[in-house]
Amino acid sequence: MSITLNAHQLGRLLDRTADHIGDEYLPVLHGIRLEADTAFLYAIATDRYTLAVARYRHHGLNSAPFARTIPARTLPALRRWLTDQPGSAPVTLTLTDGRIRFTAPHSEMSLAVDDSQQFIGWRGLLRDVIAKTKDGDETAFPALATRLLARFATADEHLRVRTAPGCEAVLLVGEDFLGAQKPVRSRHEGFDTGLADSLEDVNALWDVSLTDPDGLTAVMPTGRPRYDASRTPTDTVEALLRQTMSSTRDLIEENGSPRAVHAHAAAGVMAWSAYRYLKALQQADPKLAARIITEVADELDDGALGEFAWDAAAEAGFDPQKWQDELEAATPAASGTAG
């Protein structure tokens, strides 16, 4: 039984669930549960009061679906080992009797696990929570920044939370304590948060994962983003570096107008910048890099880059009309200078 993902994503699964591990007096909950079906690798943790489930769409499961709990006492060593690997390094999880092995290109780690250990029915619990939540107002579904929400940890042992349609903030109420936190927009500072905008979206995204599986199997959902890019990251890196070298050469040899010189310089700068950003993204998350390359290729094929840029600028909070006016105002002056 084996499955492969990169070190960054495996570490992120552990980090997103570690704070919800149950205490040592409940061995069944004292760790992080790893479950793999035909679509996702899941990390699950609960202390009976909170429940966290993180998932990652894998490239393929080289075995039957499986589930094992990594004991809490071994998690710090595993997390340190993952930190020592490059983020893009492939890590293969392999199950043998009583052990789970993590294999990277230059090292490996083996942990003892209880093959017979059971876990809570987390799918049914979350289905029930979502079903009861749907009875509320669909318009009251705010997104909260967790770094801000954590500031209320010292306010009181318990806090009530209330929100309503049209409210500018979520209300938090404790004993002799009132607090409020502003929700974030679905698109914040020019970056899509990736959050579901409604409970219907939650159901659509998670239905396949919350269906009780037969042997942990799941049907691969249709219409989801594909990660096999039409052009590989290697091809894209080559194209960007060739463009940088070509633009640099043209810039040196250019004897024409200042606008032509500027165009060569800008092309070289943008190509080199794109190469550096792509390399960083590959290091952090190769799968996301491949997806972005596919999306960019589709946008380039469409050709409406000006429209895409206009919409992106507006969503980021800029004023594309002002930019357009400035460009039009500058064009006659530039033409006159060149003449």
Q: Approximately how much beta-strand content do the residues carry?
A: 15-25%
Q: Termini separation (Å)? A: 71 Å
Number of helical elements: 10
Work out the number of β strands. Answer: 13
The run of helices and strands is: EHEEEEHEEEHHEEEEEHHHHHH
Low-pLDDT ranges = 186-193, 218-230, 333-339
Query: What's the overall geometry?
Result: globular
> How helical, in percent, are the residues?
40-55%
Question: If you had to describe this structure to a student in words, what would you say it looks like?
Answer:
- By secondary structure, the protein is α+β, with helices and mostly antiparallel strands.
- Strands 1-6-7-8 form a four-stranded antiparallel sheet. Strands 4-3-2-5 form a four-stranded antiparallel sheet, covered by helices on one side.
- It is built from ten helices and 13 strands.
- It has helices at 7-17, 75-83, 122-133, 146-149, 199-210, 233-253, 258-284, 286-302, 305-315, 320-338, and strands at residues 2-6, 31-36, 40-46, 51-57, 66-71, 90-96, 99-103, 108-112, 160-162, 170-174, 177-181, 187-188, 191-192.
- A hairpin with a 2-residue loop joins β6 (90-96) and β7 (99-103).
- The model is unreliable at 186-193, 218-230 and 333-339 (pLDDT under 50).
- It is 42% helix and 19% strand.
Summarize the structure.
This protein is an alpha+beta fold and 339 residues long. It contains ten helices and 13 strands. A hairpin with a 4-residue loop joins strand 3 and strand 4.
